[in-house]
Amino acid sequence: MTNENKMIIATELQRLAGSGKIKSVKYKYSQVELSARLGISNATVSKMISGQWNTISDAMWRKVQAILKIDIDWNTGDTSNYIKLLELLKASQDRHLTVGISFNAGVGKSHAYVDYERYTGNVIYIECKNYWKTKSYIVNLSKAAGLVAEGTVESMIESFIDHVMGLESPLIIIDQMDKLKDGAFDLFMDMYNDLFRCTGFVVSGVPALKKRIERGAKNDKIGYREVLSRLHGNFLQLDLPDFNDVAAVCMANGLDDADEIERIHNLCEGDLRIVRKEVAKYFLLNGKEVA
Questions:
Q1: Exposure of 138 by Cβ count < 10 A (0-12 exposed, 13-18 middle, 19+ buried)?
Q2: Which residues are CB-contacts of 16 (< 8 A; sequence separation ≥ 6)?
Q3: Buried-most residue among 94, 108, 127, 151 (CB within 10 A)?
Q4: What is the pLDDT of residue 286?
């Protein structure tokens, strides 16, 4: 972990929570909330921001970078899906809408969610995992909101709902929701019923999410028909990345060779993860670094 990379991380921490010196500025988090989200001490966050790095291990820096999804070596390309999703997220937050997105992996959904959460206040983003049980889900929701995750599942849920009720136009983004086990999945309706009047919701996943909800509703599985009705029976359709999208990503990262962009487009089959690997490979083989 170089000092240059540490400075990038420290700068992001200060952007999110401030240095504590300017009281009149409203930040996304307080330092206490940010430390709760990161699962580290408030003192460590303060030292990172203030440049007191001697006692902070590289492992701690890497942990913070990973949790905040700080992508030091990659730039965002303005793809059609990226622009569409940012507009959708803003509308959902401003108008307290509930939206379902069920589309292929690799088209840039999560990247757009992470960017929107990073630069917008009162947005809670969570990326679900296959191995999570109900408590793990609630713990991670609480951390994403900057809350200390402790106590019983019931008390954490109540604290989370109470916290969200106090926010101005909050938005909850539940990414990769199709990975949740039934117990955690079922909690969506409980949260929704308490919060829909003041909160926007975006539930997102691969095509399996739509199939799971529709199948559950068809089989009259408890809660699923209600979830489908809240989504108005519809899931937003995105687009497979086309040549212009691939070119936007390549050029944002310093690759402007037209033949190489064409090659990557033909190879990627609409998966931007492949585009990223091929861009990195191009610069590696040509003795350069990603811009």
A1: buried
A2: 27, 28, 29, 34, 68
A3: 108
A4: 83
Work out the percent of the chain whose per-residue pLDDT is above 90.
Answer: 82
What is the pTM for the complete model shown?
0.92
Amino acid identity of residue 193, one-letter, is N
Examine the pLDDT at 20 and tell me if it is beyond 80: no
Per-residue DSSP letter, 179: G
Amino acid at 39: G
Query: Nearest to residue 247, comparing CAs of 231, 259, 233?
Result: 259
Amino acid at 6: K
- The rounded distance, in Å, linking the Cα atoms of 13 and 35 is 10
Residue 227: pLDDT band (50, 70, 90) is confident
Q: Which two tokens stand for residue 199?
A: 């909160």
Angle at CA 143, nearest 5°, toward 141 and 144?
Answer: 65
DSSP secondary structure string, 8-39?
HHHHHHHHHH--SS-SSSPPSS-HHHHHHHHT
Q: What's the number of CA atoms in the CB half-sphere (13 Å) around residue 37?
A: 25
**Mean of the per-residue pLDDT values for the chain?**
93
Write out the two tokens for 209: 């999410």
